[in-house]
Amino acid sequence: MVGKYHQFKDGDFIVPVKRQSLIFIYREHALRFKFDYCLRSNSALLSPYDFTEDINALEVDFRSATPYEIQAMLSALLKKGLYWDFLRKSAIDLDNIPELFYR
Q1: What is the domain count for the chain?
Q2: Count of other CB atoms within 10 angstroms of residue 64
């Protein structure tokens, strides 16, 4: 699917059509573009606090990430000690056993 960011759902893996070197895990927000993590093509995993690029998301078309891009994002999260929970739509620290298995 290709469209504006607000057409995607919380937890979707999306890629800017003209900047395919970035993969985002979209976080739904009523007023502006938000994301949980961004993966660059150089394998750098960034949180929203680390992301310094200026992307005017209203003018950018996004597409759904391919299975290979999703695998790259999941691998990058695992290298940082995080597990992406598709049901909760959040990253969980692998050392947090109660959160990982009991909530």
Answers
A1: 1
A2: 14
